[in-house]
UniProtKB/TrEMBL annotation:
Organism field: Avena sativa
Source organism, top-level taxon: Eukaryota
The name this protein goes by in its record: Uncharacterized protein
Length: 428
């Protein structure tokens, strides 16, 4: 008998022996991943049932793409429920009551905007988006300026509508940005651009619109935000947010009655500027932070540990715009030698928990004041890190871990003194 036939026979025996058992019970007999598979194949209850909730429908053998998608999503949902104590989502909310629940780790889609990161065919990229959503990572961040990002989301959301259960459609969130030139912000101009994003993303209302403004000396950003708020009241936008605004302007915007739920800012173990002034205002007003640059384009990883990128061809190439950008941040913070000491500290913590350095780096920022979520860039259709990303959500750093990382971070310069407040790097 061939190996595949032996495995099939074993599965059939287990299905007959384990029908009706919960995941917890099965986990005592077989590895957890196989226990989840068996529950989905046999229609067994899950820990949700043990907790008094209605169990998910049995994951039947796929007879169509819809059934197959339902099976994948339900098995993933059952796995999520089995992670006791794991909080995978956060709610961002304005004082006006607008609210949106997002995954604490957000799939950042900026890498589809340029060939330097590599680009997969659209169908393959959408397949990858479905895989992330099936894996419980169903919040996607994009922008009108990220090449085909909004169009890919539109293709993706249509696949979800056709091939996944309605419950999953409720979990999926699409956060986009509007990055206009500093021209006169008329109602018609603002609405035209918002409608373009709605059409590209194929949604009646944008889950979140994050607004960026290049020039603070031009007060047109207040006009734009007032029109955006009107569009929200008309049902075209669910929540209004900002990206790369500093603390002073955030306060002005809030004082003008704009219902802001979040501000997306650069935030990493190297760049702790959001914790200097921004987080204090956020605590007072309820605005949350969504962070990017949290793994510094990949610099905060084993790949750059014990390397010297200052010597040509001696270390890994800085061959993406993100790597080049965040290498400049390292230089401003304290230089490559000090950065190596930080990586060594992170490596010790990562070995302690059995996770990669990047996982520790993101978890540390998620633990910071007022941070609702952190973005991890996705190279759709080229590579995937669903398992490592989910590990961020289940990782618990203890007081010793947090203290050692904070000490290593504090050895560098205060970037508030070097660069300025959040977003000032775009307005120098």
């Amino acid at each position: 008998m061939s190996v595949p036939h032996i495995l099939c026979a074993l599965v059939n025996v287990l299905l007959n022996k384990t029908h009706g058992l919960t995941v917890s019970a099965l986990h005592t007999l077989v590895p957890r991943e196989l226990a989840m598979l068996l529950c989905c194949r046999s229609g067994a209850g899950t820990v949700m049932a043990a907790a008094g909730a209605s169990p998910p429908r049995p994951c039947a053998l796929p007879s169509s793409r819809l059934v197959a998608g339902r099976r994948r999503w339900q098995c993933s949902a059952a796995m999520d429920e089995a992670e006791v104590g794991v909080k995978k989502t956060a709610t961002v909310q304005s004082k006006a009551g607008d609210a949106l629940e997002v995954c604490r780790v957000v799939n950042g889609m900026w890498q589809v905007s340029g060939a330097s990161w590599g680009r997969a065919a659209p169908a393959k990229a959408v397949d990858a988006m479905l895989a992330y959503a099936d894996g419980g990572l169903a919040t996607f961040d994009m922008a009108d300026i990220y090449g085909p990002a909004e169009d890919l989301y539109g293709m993706f959301i249509n696949r979800v509508r056709r091939e996944r259960p309605a419950e999953m459609l409720e979990e999926v969130k699409g956060l986009t940005k509007w990055v206009p030139p500093p021209v006169k912000m008329t109602r018609s101009y603002v609405e035209e651009n918002i409608n373009r994003s709605r059409k590209r993303m194929d949604v009646a209302a944008l889950d979140m619109l994050q607004f960026h403004w290049w020039d603070y000396s031009n007060p047109g950003y207040l006009d734009a935000l007032k029109h955006i708020t009107d569009l929200k009241e008309e049902g075209k936008i669910k929540t209004v947010a900002l990206t790369n605004f500093d603390t002073e302007r955030l306060q002005i915007i809030l004082e003008n009655g704009i219902p802001i739920v979040s501000n997306q800012v650069q935030h990493s173990i190297v760049d702790m500027r959001p914790q200097k002034k921004m987080a204090e205002l956020c605590q007072l007003t309820g605005v949350k932070l969504i962070t990017y640059g949290t793994v510094m384009g990949g610099l905060l990883s084993e790949k750059f540990l014990d390397t010297n990128v200052s010597i040509p061809f001696a270390g890994p190439p800085l061959n993406t715009p993100s790597l080049q950008k965040y290498k400049r941040m390292v230089d401003a913070w304290g230089g490559w030698s000090l950065f190596q000491a930080l990586l060594q500290t992170l490596k010790k913590v990562s070995l302690k928990h059995g996770v990669p350095i990047s996982t520790v780096a993101v978890r540390y920022i998620l633990n910071q004041t007022s941070v609702a979520g952190s973005m991890v860039g996705v190279r759709l259709g080229l590579s995937e890190h669903i398992r490592d990303t989910n590990a961020i959500l289940s990782l618990e750093l203890d007081e010793e871990d947090m203290g050692s990382i904070a000490e290593a971070s504090s050895r560098g310069r205060n970037l508030m003194d070097v660069i300025g407040d959040c977003g000032d790097e775009y307005r120098a």
